[in-house]
């Protein structure tokens, strides 16, 4: 019993535990999973998703699921599991826009609402559920790029940056023989024009263009007008109901605006549209699928309610939302302006930084080049310093040599002057010697003449004496022939005179001989002096020429010229002794 009781208590606990089921909700830009209670209605799940997304404009959206070969929207008033939802775990729902506004700029208040509509409409255009011309496709693609990448920056958005993005319908790509690069170039050309547009503004501009497309916000269903099964298409949108031919979804054959419809009735497969104008015929059409009929009716009711709601005063909630949205937009506008200014300042700062970096790199390059040039200059300076030092040493040496040469020149000049003076004195002495020699020669000649006269006189005197003696002897022999030699007094005076003349002649002869010897001695002495004078003059000239050659060679060395051979004189001083005691001095000029 105790075992049975415990078993029943465990079963009871299991029954009391709440049952849950997994739900996966896919939005246009995210996937979410929830754990839902079994008793939850569609509204509970829908509100949870809206809170999670942050959406307040809930009347445009719904949870869509796939059933068999069609789709259906989750009903908010019924429990989730009581509807024909898939039995998978988790159950997959798509959170999508169920109803579309007539004017997106006026009706879409929240930014998240705009973003979800933008993503859904963009996907419908790319999937070709909404027809779009190539021109409009390129323009819409440029707004989509602006919303995703922000302002176009040529330095950042290089060619090929859109290669991974799906921006154009395949039909448009196949319609023209253009490469991806060509399409990107066209889109980028428009994209560059949207500079300064924020993401929400770009998405709103995208929706404002898209809402003018013929297939925007239209849900199409296959219908027949009568029992003969004439195929037609029924379009339900925010404006009303439209009847299309099967091959044309752009231009309706007939339209029933919501303002002109009095009533829509549904009975199994038959739909009846009663115009407000009673004069107009009632329009009936048939749909073979019950799920489709329910969906048509559901969309008609929802769009008509929104149509009527737009024509009424906004509720307090909507007014608050619009006021908050307006304030938010104003705040964001201010923020964008501040951000734009900051961005501009940042760009200017970055440009200035780039300029400074460029200038810094340039200065670094210049500094590097200057350093290299400085190193080269230092090396050159060192070489030049060495050369300068060598040149200075050479200059000092040359200066020293020049000083020495100058001193030698001065000495030589002084010596030359001295030599010239000595030469002049020597020449004067030589001239005096020549004059003296001439005088001596003249005196010698005169003395010679005088000696000759004296000799002649002496000879004449001797002859006279001899004649006198002979005459005297003759007289003596005649007067006293036999007498010895007596000394007669009468001849005393004559003998005295003769003796006097003889002594005088002797004395004169001795004087002449002495003078002759003195003259010979003086002549020899004069010849010696002339020889010494000749040798001195020759040595002085030779020394002067050597000094001149030394000065010239020093000057050539100072100027860098090669030395020249010394000048060999061809002149000399020749002194010859002429006969008859004549001295001739001859100077041969060079």
From TrEMBL:
Domain FERM: 21-311
Residues given in the record as a 1,2-diacyl-sn-glycero-3-phospho-(1D-myo-inositol) binding sites: 75-78, 294
Descriptive protein name: NF2, moesin-ezrin-radixin like (MERLIN) tumor suppressor b
Gene3D superfamilies: 1.20.5.450, 1.20.80.10, 6.10.360.10, Phosphatidylinositol 3-kinase Catalytic Subunit, Chain A, domain 1 (3.10.20.90), Pleckstrin-homology domain (PH domain)/Phosphotyrosine-binding domain (PTB) (2.30.29.30)
Membrane topology type: Peripheral membrane protein
Alphabetical keyword list: Cell membrane, Coiled coil, Membrane
Keyword Coiled coil set for record: yes
GO terms for cellular component: plasma membrane
Organism listed in the record: Oncorhynchus mykiss (Rainbow trout)
GO terms assigned for molecular function: actin binding
């Amino acid at each position: 019993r105790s075992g049975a009781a415990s078993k029943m208590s465990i079963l009871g606990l299991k029954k009391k535990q709440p049952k849950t089921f997994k739900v996966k909700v896919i939005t246009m830009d995210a996937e979410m999973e929830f754990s839902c209670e079994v008793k939850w209605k569609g509204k509970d799940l829908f509100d949870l998703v809206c809170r999670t997304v942050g959406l307040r404009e809930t009347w445009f959206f719904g949870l869509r699921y796939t059933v068999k070969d069609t789709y259906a929207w989750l009903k908010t008033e019924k429990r989730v599991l009581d509807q024909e939802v898939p039995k998978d775990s988790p159950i997959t729902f798509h959170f999508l826009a169920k109803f579309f506004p007539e004017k997106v700029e006026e009706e879409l208040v929240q930014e998240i609402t705009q973003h979800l509509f933008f993503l859904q409409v963009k996907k419908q255009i790319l999937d070709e559920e909404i027809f779009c011309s190539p021109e409009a496709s390129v323009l819409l693609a440029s707004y989509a790029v602006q919303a995703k990448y922000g302002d176009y920056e040529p330095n950042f958005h290089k060619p090929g940056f859109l290669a991974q993005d799906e921006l154009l319908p395949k039909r448009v790509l196949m319609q023209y023989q253009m490469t991806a690069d060509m399409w990107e170039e066209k889109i980028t050309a428009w994209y560059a024009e949207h500079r300064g547009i924020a993401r929400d503004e770009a998405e709103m501009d995208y929706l404002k263009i898209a809402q003018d497309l013929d297939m925007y916000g239209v849900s199409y269903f296959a219908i027949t007008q009568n029992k003969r099964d004439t195929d037609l298409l029924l379009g339900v949108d925010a404006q009303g109901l439209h009847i299309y031919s099967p091959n044309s979804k752009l231009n309706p054959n007939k339209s029933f605006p919501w303002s002109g419809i009095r009533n829509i009735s549904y009975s199994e497969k038959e739909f009846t549209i009663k115009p407000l104008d009673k004069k107009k015929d009632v329009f009936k059409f048939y749909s073979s699928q019950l799920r489709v009929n329910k969906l048509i009716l559901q969309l008609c009711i929802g769009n008509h309610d929104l149509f009527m709601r737009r024509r009424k005063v906004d509720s307090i909630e909507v007014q608050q939302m619009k006021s908050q949205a307006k304030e938010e937009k104003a705040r964001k506008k201010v923020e964008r302006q501040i951000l734009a200014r900051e961005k501009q300042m940042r760009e200017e700062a970055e440009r200035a930084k780039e300029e400074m970096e460029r200038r810094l790199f340039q200065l670094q390059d210049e500094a590097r080049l200057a350093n290299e040039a400085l190193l080269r200059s230092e090396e050159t300076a060192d070489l030049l310093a060495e050369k300068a030092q060598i040149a200075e040493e050479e200059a000092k040496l040359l200066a020293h040599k020049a000083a020495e040469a100058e001193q030698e020149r001065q000495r030589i000049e002084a010596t030359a002057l001295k030599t010239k003076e000595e030469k002049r004195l020597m020449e004067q002495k030589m001239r005096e010697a020549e004059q003296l020699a001439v005088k001596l020669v003249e005196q010698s000649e005169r003395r010679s003449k005088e000696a000759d006269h004296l000799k002649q006189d002496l000879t004449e005197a001797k002859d006279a004496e001899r004649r006198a003696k002979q005459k005297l002897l003759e007289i003596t022999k005649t007067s006293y022939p036999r007498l010895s030699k007596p000394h007669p007094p009468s001849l005393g005076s004559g003998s005295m005179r003769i003796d006097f003349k003889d002594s005088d002649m002797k004395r004169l002869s001795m004087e002449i001989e002495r003078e002759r010897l003195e003259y010979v001695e003086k002549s020899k002495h004069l010849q010696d002096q002339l020889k010494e004078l000749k040798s001195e003059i020759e040595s002085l000239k030779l020394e002067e020429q050597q000094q001149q050659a030394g000065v010239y060679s020093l000057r050539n060395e100072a100027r860098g010229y090669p030395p020249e051979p010394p000048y060999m004189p061809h002149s000399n001083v020749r002194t010859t002794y002429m006969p008859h005691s004549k001295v001739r001095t001859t100077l041969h000029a060079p």
